[in-house]
């Protein structure tokens, strides 16, 4: 199984009044990681209107803090006919800090309707299947 790792820059302004990274900003960091992964895998042809986020969840295990490197690891946990689930796990200082799942539906750009995932993209996703 392949994984994709990414360490976004966590900024001072990402913190909330409790001193940890704001939950809305965490969703943005997870999105940034996912887009970077798809771009580096040359899967960009299914982006730009070709995918729709239909569900996202994030479970916080420990607060994500400004300062220590945040390392995110991407895998795929499920592949359907028109959708797939991307799992992103976050770690800081050797501790898991969050676990996120995002379900994406592949869309036909002309009709805006769900469309089967192409075989080359399915093969790419399967290589990341946990």
Could you explain the architecture of this structure?
This protein is of the alpha+beta class. It is built from two helices and five strands. The protein has a five-stranded antiparallel β-sheet. The longest helix has 18 residues, at 23-40.
What is the topological layout?
Layout: E1 4-6, H1 23-40, E2 51-60, E3 70-79, E4 83-92, E5 95-106, H2 119-127
Antiparallel strand pairs: 1-3, 2-5, 3-4, 4-5
Keywords:
130 residues; alpha+beta; elongated
The total count of helices amounts to: 2
Strand coverage percent: 25-35%
Q: Name the shape in a single word.
A: elongated
State the end-to-end CA separation. 6 Å
What portion of residues is helical?
10-25%
Structural class: alpha+beta
Rounded mean pLDDT score: 92
Summarize the structure.
This protein is α+β, with helices and mostly antiparallel strands and 130 residues long.
């Amino acid at each position: 199984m392949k994984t994709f790792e990414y360490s976004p820059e966590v900024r001072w302004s990402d913190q909330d009044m409790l001193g940890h990274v704001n939950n809305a900003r965490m969703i943005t960091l997870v999105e940034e990681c996912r887009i970077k992964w798809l771009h580096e895998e040359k899967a960009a042809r299914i982006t730009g209107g070709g995918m729709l986020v239909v569900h996202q969840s994030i479970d916080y295990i420990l607060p994500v803090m400004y300062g220590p490197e945040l390392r995110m690891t991407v895998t795929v946990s499920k592949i359907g006919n028109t959708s797939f689930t991307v799992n992103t796990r976050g770690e800081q200082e050797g501790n898991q800090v969050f676990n996120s799942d995002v379900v994406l539906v592949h869309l036909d750009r002309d009709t805006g309707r769900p469309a089967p995932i192409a075989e080359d993209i399915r093969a790419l996703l399967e290589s990341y299947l946990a």
